[in-house]
Design a protein that fits this description.
3-stranded antiparallel β-sheet, 8 strands, mainly alpha
């Protein structure tokens, strides 16, 4: 990167504008690559006490020490601002440095200040159109962004105009390296940050170049973990020594046969269990994550689990859910005790329900409605898993047929 020519000069204001005491105002001039910005230092001095060659007060004249010290502080501040701009965006302008020095920079048009406003509004939607879990993810992204700004630029906030595509790429690398984030997790953080930029535009402020116009969101496709029927049965019928594992297992199996997410199961009450037109019990509600309605037939196994805890309910909740994080920790133990080598998380139960339905011939439209998906393309991910299973089954059949011919 070419370093620009950067100079600071102090001089006396000429003309017939001397003050009543005969003093002349001391002016400052910032020059960068031929561009100039002038400003008042708010200092004054008798012209005969000024050295125009050095741009300082003559030593041992009245107030010379105090004046020269203040001029040195101004020069030091401008140098810090210049280096900051060169580090942040690769260039600096005299007007920009002048605004930073005089404190006239637009303080409200910074990313963290907007992020805070966005999160405050998002928090008000918790329980209606969004969940506390999603809200906390936005809070975490803001925290990670603050950490990045502090480490990379030694600042606590940054003007929107100074955020470039390069800034987003550096934030992505920071998440990957400093927080050991996988690609998709890092991209999710960048996705949430993009939501904040969209919010900023919705407020009517658009005096900045959208850094996302040159940034490509790239999510890696991963095969979804799911359990087959034998693995579900192994967990279902396992006898555990601790009640905590027993409860987590029950809720996990409940999800395997209903497809409900952890958040939706946590909120289940008797009001969600309804006798439908077909004289069968159904679980009916709205997904916490999307607000989309779901209807799931209540099979014998999940009904038995509900009845198991009918005498120990708290706050009207059907099932004894603990925190999602703790639940996933226990599921690691359950997988190990059951001899299951897959990475077992609670969401695997939802995946397992979808694949089980599709394997048994339930139409994908029905599965999508039960899962409460907003887009059937989301459900088609599970259909691809079934295609992989079908291919694997055909390979096994081919091997048996070929072996029979020999």
């Amino acid at each position: 990167m070419r370093r620009s020519t950067f100079k600071i000069l102090f001089y006396l204001k000429k003309g017939n504008l001397a003050k009543k005491n005969g003093n002349a105002a001391i002016m400052g001039r910032i020059t960068i690559d031929g561009q100039i910005a002038q400003f008042s230092t708010k200092l004054d001095i008798l012209p005969e006490h000024w050295n125009s060659d050095s741009g300082k007060a003559i030593i041992n004249t009245p107030n010379s020490s105090a004046i020269n010290k203040q001029l040195a502080n101004i020069k030091s501040s401008l140098t810090v601002f210049y280096n900051k701009q060169m580090t942040l965006v690769g260039y600096a302008t005299p007007d920009k440095l002048k605004r930073m020095l005089l404190g006239t920079e637009e303080k409200n048009h910074t990313i963290i200040s907007y992020f805070e406003k966005f999160n405050q509004q998002y928090k008000l939607q918790v329980g209606t159109t969004t969940t506390r879990t999603t809200y906390t993810k936005y809070e975490l992204t803001k925290k990670r962004l603050e950490e990045f700004l502090n480490k990379k630029y030694k600042i606590t906030d940054i003007q929107l105009k100074e955020i470039t595509t390069s800034t987003l790429q550096e934030f992505y690398l920071f998440l990957r390296k400093d927080h050991n984030s996988g690609n998709n997790n890092a991209m999710k953080n960048l996705q949430r940050l993009r939501s904040v930029f969209n919010y900023i535009k919705s407020t009517g402020y658009d005096d900045f170049n959208d850094p996302y116009l040159g940034f490509k969101m790239n999510f890696e496709k991963h095969a979804r973990n799911y359990l087959d029927q034998s693995e579900i049965d192994a967990i279902h019928h396992k006898i555990f020594a601790f009640d905590s594992l027993d409860r987590v297992r029950d809720i996990f199996i409940f999800s395997c046969y209903t497809g409900l997410s952890y958040s939706d199961i946590s909120d289940l009450t008797e009001d969600n269990i309804k006798l439908a037109f077909d004289d069968n019990l159904w679980i009916m509600g709205k997904r916490n994550k999307t607000g989309v309605k779901y209807n799931v037939r209540l099979f014998d196994t999940p009904l038995q689990i509900i009845e198991k805890y009918s005498n120990s309910r708290k706050n009207g909740k059907l099932l004894p859910c603990i925190s999602n994080q703790k639940t996933n920790e226990y599921l690691k133990n359950i997988a190990e005790l059951c001899g299951i080598k897959k990475n077992l998380t609670f969401h695997v139960a939802r995946h397992s329900f979808a694949t089980l339905c599709l394997t048994e011939g339930v139409p994908i439209e029905s599965v999508s409605k039960m899962l409460g998906h907003t887009d059937i393309k989301t459900t088609q991910i599970y259909a691809r898993i079934i295609d992989q299973k079908l291919s694997h089954d055909m390979d096994l059949l081919a091997q048996r047929l070929n072996k029979a011919k020999k």
